[in-house]
Amino acid sequence: MKKYRLFVILFLIPFISCNTRSFRADIIVYGGTSAGVAAAVEASRLGLSVLLVGPDIHLGGLSASGLGWTDSGNKKVVGGLAREVYQRIKYQYDQSENWQFENAEDSRYYKPDQDAVWVFEPHIAERVFEELIREENITVHRDRWLDRKSGVKKENGKISSIRMLNGDVYKGKMFIDASYEGDLMAAAGTSYTLGRESNDQYGESINGVVTKRDISHQFELDIDPYLTPGDPESGLLPRIHNDDPGIEESGDHRIQAYCFRMCLTKVEENRIPFPKPENYDPLQYELLGRYFDQGWRKLFNKFDETPNKKTDTNNSGGFSTDNIGMNYDYPEASYDERAAIVDEHRSYQQGLMWFMAYDPRVPEDVRSAMSQWGLAKDEFLDNNHWPHQIYVREARRMVSDFVMNENHLRGKKATPESIGMGSYNMDSHHVQRYVDEKGFARNEGDVQINPGGPYSISYRAIVPKKEEVTNLLVPVCLSSSHIAYGSIRMEPVFMILGQSAANAAGLAISQGKAVQDISYKELKARLIEIGQVLQLTTK
To answer: What pTM, to 2 d.p., does this model score?
Structure first.
């Protein structure tokens, strides 16, 4: 029997080896997000060999998965390849065949004389990302999942190769982690954090627990949280926790709620009624039902209009598409565990829409209004018209020698070595739902504070500590506090940082240096040459 087993093993070895493929490029980009596409395209334009690999089937991340209402902030700071993406989207809408359910002249967000379009449909954005990849003849390996346990090999502080779960190995001189989760960064041994810092940690004023100032997307009426109204002994309704919200301004493990940015329409020939999840449970939405009973009706505040009479539908109000408190484990979870969390979020959100549109528990006027809407039939064709990508508002954040925080965004502290700019609000969505001291449901964690104008983002925030790894750049899960990341985390900024990261990687290769040691003077000159906006003279 032992001889037979040995024979079988020896017989199979050649076949096992054949299934393990090895690929090599100057730059390996992990993650098909908008930042990943920008990094790969820029690397190719620099004349470097590049390979884009990651779990994604569809390219562009949230930009091509429902987030068509671009969180651009001050558009003057969106330059380089990021602006080119929005200009290419505008070119798509210059074509009459792309107006199927609306006349171009009737659209609020398409203007023929403007250079770019900032509000768009998911499939149009995905088409643009795919065109960029095709024009540069970039090799993309989709549905490739990093072996997070032992798939990153390092030699003398440098990543030499990364291996996927299917056995494929990717060798490169430089690596860019453009994933929303920071999986490559973490597997490479880079320091990172999760959750919220206390205000004391970086001398901030709006980080940590914010019960006293949490007014946005809040319950505007007193809603009873108990299974039997007025009876705490009966237990809490679903999606409310019985923990104390925490000490004001203290840090914790909680992260911003996730949701799907749905693309909806009322156009009958392009509308699919909201699906009812198999595990539908109306009790999950009873808190919202009670909110309706008291007269709340601000359902459609974030049904933001996009071309062809569609929407980018986002969270709005005290109980909405944000699945508050159900994502804490996501960043560190295994792939199977993450899939279960995503499935739970999908079921929650689909159930929410079905509840509002069809459940007799809901007042008739709400059902009548909501049931006119449905999923857009011509979007997400291979996913039952549901967005491919869940909105990972934050996951891991790298901790490098320089950490972007509120003071840098507000201009209270200098930001060295700018590689691009952000400008959006410091925007954190809720992280928990609890019972307040009066016995009513309350949300906590939402912050909507304008930093005061555009701000620079430091090159030092996308490079790890030198003693940890010297050939990795992290443009998405960069080194930032929770509240600063709430502004930085916008899709145009991710593309800006992805493009800048590729240029830094190119310099590191040409100079034969660690990414921490390249000449910023040369990097700055290159970024200005390609149209990146590194600073504005006035805020």
So the answer is: 0.95
